[in-house]
């Protein structure tokens, strides 16, 4: 088993980045292996982030029209109330499962 080099928070060498940092640069790991990890100590244990080489990262794939359509359809489904079938105009709360007027309707009727 190979162990990875571990760097302290904010002390990673230049040329390495996390997934989020790569994404902010318009890059993705592109199948390369993790080369190191970064450790951020906390009271309840430490957070670990994996580091990738920036020079081996590939550009982010652009969204295709089909992906945009699928994303729009998924977001519309998250806004549509299953009880009344209307577009609520906001993402339905998962705690309710329906739009706010439908969730309040039984309380008003009782």
Describe the SSE topology.
Blueprint: E1 6-8, E2 16-17, H1 19-24, E3 27-28, E4 36-40, E5 47-53, E6 58-59, H2 65-79, H3 100-109
Parallel strand pairs: 1-4
Antiparallel strand pairs: 2-5, 3-6, 4-5
Your description of this structure?
The chain is of the alpha+beta class and about 110 residues long. The protein is built from three helices and six strands. The strands form two sheets. It has a four-stranded mixed beta sheet with strand order 1-4-5-2. The longest helix has 15 residues, at about 65-80.
Question: What labels would you give this structure?
Answer:
single chain, alpha+beta, 6 strands, elongated
Shape: elongated
Q: Please tell me how large the radius of gyration is.
A: 22 Å
Bin the helical content. Answer: 25-40%
Low-pLDDT residue intervals, each spanning 5 or more residues: none
- Helix and strand composition category: alpha+beta
Q: What's the average pLDDT? A: 91
N-to-C order of helices and strands: EEHEEEEHH
The largest β sheet comes out as: 4 strands, mixed
